[in-house]
Design brief:
Number of helices: 12
Distance between the termini: 78 Å
Shape: globular
Helix content: 40-55%
Mean pLDDT: 92
Structural class: alpha/beta
Low-confidence stretches: none
Strand content: 15-25%
Strand order of the largest sheet: 2-1-3-4-5-11
CATH superfamily of the largest domain: Response regulator
CATH architecture of the largest domain: 3-Layer(aba) Sandwich
CATH class of the largest domain: Alpha Beta
Order of helices and strands: HEHEHEHEEHEHEHEHHEHEHEEHE
């Protein structure tokens, strides 16, 4: 009888161990808004985790463009005791960092970690700092008469403030006048576009989530005014923007996913530094080239052009 009881205890212990070993790793992903660049980053991140062979349970939530929603999502992830969380975009990352200083936080699609306050022992990731100089240089090559370039941005997004300051310096170096207009919500977009498009030779859209999500409206108004759009991501060129020099957001997300795998396998997040992607792609819209009578021969011959 005693042997039977002892055997039962051992078996129950083994079952308990097996359950513990088979426990899924809980990962939370929060994204401020859905658009092609951010969605691609998420795809790349999840792909890296899938290929790692780790048994993960991923919960994804979209904040629908609202910071308040983003904070609620972050708090819910902490309450659920996620093993690791990912913030896609600056507002999402800031919400996570506000919510926890203990759970490992990975971040992607953020321009400048330091200026956004995303510096600490439990946070790292990948930056999508836009190649603004390359973008402006290509704009000048395609549009030789370019004198004034407009930039529209969300005044409440830290990413955008950093990029505007960078764009000012680069525009001055290249002999271009930068015309700025700031907005605080999607409701301001139409009026802001009507104002700025009267003053510029081309319009530049930075990696600003509010601006990128309004691409159809931007292109509609710019096309009516015959103002070419210099984009920040490939999907905008697919929609009709003239050109962009951009990074591959899926590759950026994949690189972030590789960081997640390292952390989940035991590496200390403090030892993983923030990274950026070095490679860029030059992408041009064929219909816009024809519309604006652009001569592609003016482009630096060392660049590989993708025409869509």
């Amino acid at each position: 009888m005693k042997k039977s009881i002892l055997l039962l205890i051992v078996l129950l212990g083994l079952i308990g161990c097996q359950k513990k070993e088979s426990k899924k790793i809980k990962i939370g992903i929060t994204q401020i808004v859905e658009h092609q660049a951010l969605d691609s980053a998420r795809v790349g991140f999840e792909k890296a985790l899938t290929e790692s062979g780790l048994d993960v349970d991923i919960e994804f939530q979209n904040a629908q463009g609202e910071f308040a929603n983003s904070q609620l999502i972050a708090n819910s992830f902490v309450k659920d005791k996620k093993d690791l969380v990912l913030g896609i975009s600056t507002p999402s990352a800031q919400s996570l960092y506000n919510a926890t200083k203990h759970i490992p936080i990975l971040v992607t699609a953020v321009t400048d970690f330091e200026s956004a306050g995303l510096v600490g022992d439990n946070i790292t990731g990948t930056s999508d700092m836009a190649p603004v100089r390359e973008q402006f240089e290509v704009a000048k090559q395609l549009l030789p008469n370019l004198k004034k370039i407009g930039i529209i941005y969300n005044t409440s997004e830290q990413n955008s403030l950093v990029l505007v300051e960078k764009a000012k310096i680069i525009a001055k170096d290249l002999g271009i006048e930068l015309v700025e207009v700031g907005i605080s919500s999607i409701n301001d977009m139409s009026m802001a576009l009507d104002t700025i498009l009267k003053k510029v030779d081309a319009l530049y859209t930075p990696t600003d989530n509010l601006v990128v999500s309004a691409t159809p409206l931007i292109l509609e108004k710019a096309n009516k005014k015959n103002i070419p759009v210099i984009a920040c991501v490939e999907d905008q060129v697919k929609q009709g923007a003239l050109v962009t020099v951009t990074i591959d957001y899926e590759k950026l997300g994949y690189q972030t996913g590789e960081m997640a795998v390292r952390i989940l396998k035991g590496e200390d997040i403090k030892d993983i530094k923030v990274k950026t992607l070095e490679d860029t792609d030059l992408i041009i819209n064929k219909e816009s080239v024809e519309k604006y009578n652009v001569d592609l021969k003016n482009i630096d011959e060392s660049k590989t052009i993708k025409i869509i």
